[in-house]
Amino acid sequence: MTKPPIPTEYDRLELLYEVQTVLAQRIGIEQACDGVLSIVTRALPVRTAVVLDRIQPTALMWAAAGLAPVALDEAREHALETLEYLAPGTASTKVVGRMVAVLSRGVAEPRVTSRHFVTLPLIVRGDVIGVFQLEGAIAFEERDVLFINAMSSQLAVVLDRNHVQAELEANRSKLERANRRLSDLQAITRAALEGATLDESLAAILRAMHAMFEMDTAAVLLVTGSKLRCRSSIGIEGAVDLEHSVEAAAANKVLATGTAMFFDDLEGIEVASTLPGQAIRSLLGAPMHARNRVTGVVYVGSRKPRAFAHDELQLLELVAERIETIIDNANLYERALAAIRSREVVMGAVAHDLRNPLMAIQMSTELLATQDPKLVRPVAIIKSSTAVMIRLIDDLRDVAAIEAGHLAIRVRSEDAGALVRAAAEGMSAAALKKPVRIETRLPTRALVLECDGVRITQVLTNMLSNAIKFTPPGGSITVSLAEVAGVAQFSVADTGSGIQPADLPHVFDPYWQAKKTAHLGTGVGLAIAKGIVEAHGGTMSVESRVDHGTTFSFTLPIAPSLEELPASPDRTAVVSNPRRRVLLVDDDSNVLSALAVLLEKQGFVVETAIDGIQALSKVRELAPDILIVDVEMPKLNGPDLVRRIREDHAALPVILMTGHDDHVVEPARSELRASYISKPLEIDDLVSTIHRLLDK
């Protein structure tokens, strides 16, 4: 055969220019090669053409019309052998061969006695990325090889560009998929926050999983002994709380191996033994781990066979981690609440049992002080020590109440300035003893707060007590009140030694104390103060510089108008009517006898009863003017006694004495229309309350 002549070298340059124009276009490798070969076959008698890609192992092939398939296979093998020679190791890689198109001007010579190949490497940046091979119907001349080589150089650039584009597309696809998975995880997090309970959170998570995996079912199975129990599910009727034997089921395989698994076709395999037949054909499952053990399985299932991607498996593993964290945190939270409740019960019982003997001590010291002037000093010591014990008990009760979320707050309109003055006056004796100077800075306009005045005074007193404690003699303390951004801001600033920066984050932690001052208190005062402020809807903060002092501040809402401020109750004792009859009921005989003597000294006629049954009889017999009764008594407790008495004496004034927290007695107080006073009590407070009720 005679090849078509190329008249001049100028014609070759024209062809190369056409090739360059084709390859300069942003087109794929197949389309580029088609264009190049359509140009080449105008000048050369091409029988077969092969472009072998080493990076993406593929063999793109073209052949003249009518050429036997075996001839094309032999051409591909020749190209592969050449590539193996140029880049050893290629032969071990599986190469996918594909016939792209028929050469429009190709020359088929089925009866050739020898093959004529020109196989040239495609080189980019010194690396062989493939080969370009042409097979001629007759032998190529040298100038033909030079012409083919010029084309291969340009073709190598196109192939490399194709690799870069493919890599960019793959990376973009991975990034988009990763972003979708990140969004899926965020959806799981949002779903977890939707529920107020663990079951509601799990249900919301499973709904999100159901949508993101596009599956028919989803479930959370937890290990209980030797079985799996379904805690939550979607798309599976009657599965919740059903127990499954740990046998050779799909979910149990995940549990046994402790690794995520997928089952493209579950024909003949159950999801979990005894699970209701739901015709699940494909399943993706992941274990949940906590504290080095497998605690359960999370799975999604399809009722049709389907394949799973590797990133779906990774996503489910991450979801399983989050579900386990939620379950573990919920369990820890329940244990913490149970511990707080147990501690609260113990604290309540201990506080109540301690208050009765403390009250007996307090009442007895009042009697001693009135009998012998020589006992004034010892009695003062006893009273001071009793007050410290009472304060410790109250502090521990307050901490427990704050942590349990039911600190009692009695809100009324209060003058903020009056609260500051009262706290400063209350701590003036301690300040003079140190000595340190207390200065108050109050606004010209009265600030009215809706708050519990007793509790806020407690906060201010605690802040002042700390300031006095840590301010050296001769120092000063400034108590400020100001309106800032629509709220009342209280501040107590001292000129003490300041707080170390490392200690500042812990000053409001219960029971925490800096090492050098650990001997100066119990470490609960600031925690209680912060809890009281937050219970009012305010905030508390601290600023400090070492050797420059410390400032504690808190804010409270301001009431709309001072006109709502009621007059403060008169707590001064009123001259009593000596014929008023008081029935005093308490199962502690020491408290009963001491309190009876003190009330008699105030001019009351006092009758006593040791329990509720006896008191019920004396009420009917004596018709007292007022009933003072202990809440906690055997046989018939205080509230039940009052309920019985109210049947016939609806208007009888009642005072309940209690060592319990406010939240325990508040419901009974409201129901029984009774006042109450905490043990140990001050006799002046009790007398004032008696007169207030009798004078109504």
Describe the model.
By secondary structure, the protein is α/β, with parallel strands linked by helices. Residues 273-277 and 562-578 have low confidence and may be disordered. The chain is built from 17 helices and 23 strands. The protein has helices spanning 9-23, 29-40, 69-86, 142-194, 198-212, 250-257, 310-371, 376-404, 416-426, 428-433, 453-470, 525-535, 589-601, 612-622, 638-646, 662-672, 683-694, and strands at residues 46-53, 58-64, 96-103, 116-124, 127-136, 217-224, 227-234, 243-245, 261-263, 282-290, 293-302, 412-415, 437-441, 448-451, 476-484, 487-494, 540-545, 549-557, 581-585, 605-609, 626-630, 654-658, 675-678. Helix 4 (142-194) packs antiparallel against helix 5 (198-212), helix 7 runs antiparallel to helix 8 (376-404) and helix 14 runs parallel beside helix 15. It is 45% helix and 22% strand.
